[in-house]
Design goal:
Elements: H1 2-13, H2 21-37
Length: 41
C-alpha cells in the first residue's frame, strides 16, 4: 500500500493527476480504505 500511495503522490506532484490537495486526499483515502477491506489471498 505504501508504494501505491507514493506513486499516486508522485504523479500528483508532477502534474500527471489534476486535482486539488483536498480532492487527491479524498481519492487516496478511498483507495486505501478499499484496498484494506479487500481480502488478500
Amino acid at each position: 500500500m505504501a508504494a501505491i500511495f507514493a506513486g499516486l503522490l508522485a504523479d500528483w506532484l508532477h502534474g500527471l493527476i489534476e486535482a486539488t490537495p483536498t480532492a487527491i486526499a479524498q481519492r487516496v483515502w478511498r483507495l486505501l480504505v478499499t484496498l484494506h477491506r479487500t481480502p488478500h489471498g
